[in-house]
Each structure stands twice: as structure tokens, then as C-alpha cells.
Amino acid sequence: MIDIHAIDGKIAAPDTRFDVVVVGAGASGTAAAIAAAKGGASVLLLDENPVPGALIGTDVPYFFGGRMTAAVQHPQRMLEQVFASNPLLAAAFEAGVDVRLGTCAWGLYVNGPAMRALPEPLLAIADGQTAAMIGFGRLVLATGARDLVLGFNGWNQPGVMGAQGFAALLTRYDALASRRVVILGSNMLALDTALLAVSRGIEVAALVEVAAVVQGPAALLEQVQAAGISVLLGHTVAEARGGIDGVESIILLSEHEAPTEIACDTIVLAIGATAATELLDAAGTTAGDAIILIGDAATVTRPEAAYLRAWSAALGRGATSNTVVCQCEDVTRADLLGVQPPQYLTRPEKMAQRSLSSLLNDGPAHPDQIKRLTRAGMGPCQGRRCRDQVACLLAEHQKVPLESVPIASFRAPVRPVQLSILADWQENDAMARGWDVWFGIPTQWTPYAVIGTPQEAEHVVGLGGNMHV
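Below the sequence we write its predicted C-alpha cells.
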């Protein structure tokens, strides 16, 4: 028998299909698109840049940290900057590549254990007006990397940002308002960030490192020191102080010195980065023959777990119960460790008695579980600023290795997309039929169309349906 309400064979074919789809129009992605086009393939090259000013304000896709100028509110100017920052885009057009800027890839759907009804692998994309499903023969992800973010007192104010966001505003958009920065970290990312800042006329007050030795290459360190930049080893952040425009100074702690205050308008988190593979993670799949990672998405690796734990513990020295962990939902350390909902929701007496300790009575805490109970990670930035903090705090308070705590999962859409754009998608007639039983077990539901008709009784008797939609 064929279940008329099953979705098998009913999912529409993609709106468009390409031999090769490349996500990310940086240097590696653009070069890959040009090479594929010259080889005779039909090629689509997507890039979410220029990102709308509103999304930049919510720290998507990078931790921009509120240090952008008003230039990000001018789409045409931003588009010109994106082209100016990547001369290969003109060559891609000439090679016949379908180039779509300002277009994000928000979902990847492939057949697997949890899905077997797709006509082929599909990539969900959207720009500011429309959404579409794209079919592909091969998908190339040149999606780069995202910053690892660890918070401290005062980090939830304008002027605290990630190294990726710092570089994007400075180079791709030419829209960075920073003038004097302090950089956290001393690895290659931190040293490169310092040299980039100096090359663009931005003063670097200091690099701050919790370890006793510099983590980056000696050759880069020599260049940083030659630029007159000091590296403060064995230091951590007590607080970022600010005013109406955000960060104004940073307070540093060390084991053998009194607290030090350094004036700055920006604090750049360059502790580490991780490959931006949210599309794969949300799809529950991995790279292979049909899906390829290139550029930073393939080569960037997370710092050693022990290093992240050291930073998290050091920053925790100056933290209080009110230190914010999740900026979007305003979840504090006390809320997270107490497994409490955000302050804007009511907390019944029974819920107020809950804690991480009580939760651990039922087994190890999972970040996804914590997310559902506290909403940490559910905001507009989709956990980019807090998921690594949550993992570090869970590891510390469960007294388990950080590598044993998974990072909270990603779910589509992996980019914020307006519901009005998604709602414009037109289902075919076969897809629309039977929608009312897809949210439950078909035999438990009386289909909406037969309620109030003679067939309703037949359904109850024949299929056992006893619940109305």
C-alpha cells in the first residue's frame, strides 16, 4: 500500500540546477568558480556579502561588535567595496559564472538516515527579496571561519568584536570605526590581526595572552615587536569599561602585578577560530565527493582544548554571577549554571530550585539541552557568540575534559531569513495534500478535509483516527 500522505516523490524539483555551486566568493571560492566554468560546467557563485546593515548589527555572520561606521547602511557603496576587495569577481563574470552577491545559503538538504524523499541534494538560498532551492552536481564550500568567543565583564557592549569581523570591516567594507585596539591572544591569528591593524593606521595598544609564552610563529612576533607593539604574557581581562559609545578601556589582571588599565575603543578577540561549516552541521552530513571544503573552511582548526580551557578559566577570575554569557537572550553565568530561563520570562518556584547540579543527577549535561532550558544560543546571532562559552563552562563545572563536551548543534536556517521571504515559496499540489497529518502519526489523525463529512466515521473505524487537527 502507498501512504497518500507520505512526502515521497512530492518534494518539488529545484528552482534551478547547476553543475557546480560555490558558496563563498573570497579568493579561493572565486578561483574555484572560474576554474569550473572554464572547464565547461554551469557554475553558480554565492556570497552573502554585502551583508545588510541590520544583520551586521546582530553580529551575523561575524562578530562585528558594534564598531562599524554608517557606511554599512549604504548598500550600493557596500557592493562597490566588495567588488573592489576582490578583483577576481570581474573575471568570474567574464568566465560565464552566475555571480550572486548579497545572497546567503541558509540550508543544505541531502538524503540520509533522516531524509530519503529528496529528488536530489538541495541548497536553500535567499537574498533580500526571494528564496529558492538550488540543485547541484557538486557543492564547493568556501565559507571561511568564525571566531571563538569567550566573554568577560563588559564584553556585551559596543567595541568588543571578533578578529574575523574586525578584518571584514577593515578590508572588505572599509567601514571600521576603531582607532585604538587591544587584542586578546598571541597566536598567528592575533599576530596577523595586529599587523593588519597597524598597516591600516590603527594603533595597537597591546596583545594580551594568558599563557606564559607567545603562541604564534617567531617570525610574526618579530614583526609585531618591530612595530612597537607589546605582548603582555600571563595576563587576563578583569573588565571592559565603557561609556555611551561603548568600550573606553580594559582592565587587566596578572598574578604578580596590580590591575592595569589600558585606554582603547576596541577589544579584538583573536583567541582562535573554527571552520564555518554550519551548513554541513545542520544537514547532518560531511564533506565527500559531492560536497567539498576549500580555503579556510578546510584548513582552519580549533585551538587545543587545554588552551581554550585556560582562557575560559582566566576570564572567569574576573567574572561575576551577572556576567552575560548569551547577549541575544541576556543569559548570565548565574542563569546558565542555575539552568534558568532568561530574566524576561517568569520563574516559578519549582523552576527556581533547578541548577546544573540537579540536572547532572540525570547524566551529563548537553549544550542542546541547556539551550532549550535557558535559551542560550537561540537569539539572532544563532549562538555564534556563546556556544563555545557554554561548552567551556559545562566542562569546567562538570569537571570533564572540554573535548568531551559537544558544541551546540546548528539548525537550518543557519542565517537569519525573513519569514515573509520563506513563505513566498509555492508548494505543489501533491505537497499540499495531506499536510494536516505530517505533524503526527497519520493513523492517529482524522484528516482535516473529511471532518464533518460521512468519511469521518469511516476514518475513525478503519484507521483508528481519534484526534482532530
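The longest helix spans residues 305-317.
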